[in-house]
User: Which sequence fits this backbone?
């Protein structure tokens, strides 16, 4: 199936690894030019070059910290300078620390809000004029299943990503007649370094086999998801085929969500 993404220009956050990398790779494979954002410059350049070599698509690295307002402005300006426009915006990044809610001071909350919520607000605001000029655009926000099915100790993420869901739904109503769609994806347990950080020994990517078995038992499909399975939905939502889907929250979790809607 041709997703008709040739000639589109995409901006993808957290693109040096994990879900962000898988999204950038698939969009590039479908013919889109991709500006890739991450904080660490060297891994980002390596990822960018790898995708370029494997897909032949134009890729541009933008080393920036989305938690900083000035860096969000830099991301938008650089993307427009390199690509001329932004057709597709993928808001994706890591997550705040885990812990009991009453253990976090105001500074921890401030950082979480800047990372998870304000980055989405700023980058969406920056990309929208380019989308409106073409009467076409896609904004896709990657959060987590915990945003709609809260878990203890995930409170910083739950609260701020719930804000993203509210923001996304409201924005979708405000731009619905302008050819722009806004959707949110809530991944469940996905095979990334984050899984090891949360459920492992504290080292990225390392999960004890017994713990992994317990995680799988909580998932009807009895397995964790793959980053490509998130990227596939993102690519579809970014395509013209998904033009009538907006304001929606999509959970990609192997059936783990425990309510009807």
Assistant:
């Amino acid at each position: 199936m041709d997703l008709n993404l040739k000639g589109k220009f995409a901006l993808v956050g957290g693109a040096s690894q994990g879900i962000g990398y898988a999204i950038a790779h698939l969009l590039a494979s479908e013919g889109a030019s991709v500006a890739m954002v991450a904080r660490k410059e060297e891994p980002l350049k390596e990822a960018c070059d790898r995708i370029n070599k494997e897909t032949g698509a134009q890729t541009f690295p933008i080393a920036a910290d989305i938690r900083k307002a000035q860096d969000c402005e830099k991301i938008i300006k650089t993307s427009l300078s390199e690509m001329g426009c932004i057709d597709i915006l993928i808001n994706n990044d890591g997550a705040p620390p885990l812990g009991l809610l009453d253990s976090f001071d105001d500074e921890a909350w401030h950082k979480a809000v800047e990372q998870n919520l304000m980055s989405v607000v700023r980058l969406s605001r920056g990309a929208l004029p380019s989308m409106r000029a073409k009467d076409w655009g896609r904004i896709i926000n990657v959060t987590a299943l915990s945003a709609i099915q809260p878990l203890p100790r995930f409170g910083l993420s739950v609260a701020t990503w719930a804000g993203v869901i509210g923001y996304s739904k409201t924005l979708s109503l405000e731009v619905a007649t302008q050819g722009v769609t806004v959707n949110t994806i809530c991944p469940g347990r996905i095979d990334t370094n984050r899984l090891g950080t949360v459920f492992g020994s504290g080292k990225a990517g390392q999960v004890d086999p017994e713990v992994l078995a317990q995680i799988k038992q909580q998932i009807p499909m009895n397995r964790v998801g793959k980053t490509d399975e998130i990227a596939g939905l993102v690519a579809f939502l970014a395509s013209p085929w998904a033009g009538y889907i907006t304001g929606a929250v999509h959970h990609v979790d192997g059936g783990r969500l425990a309510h009807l809607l």
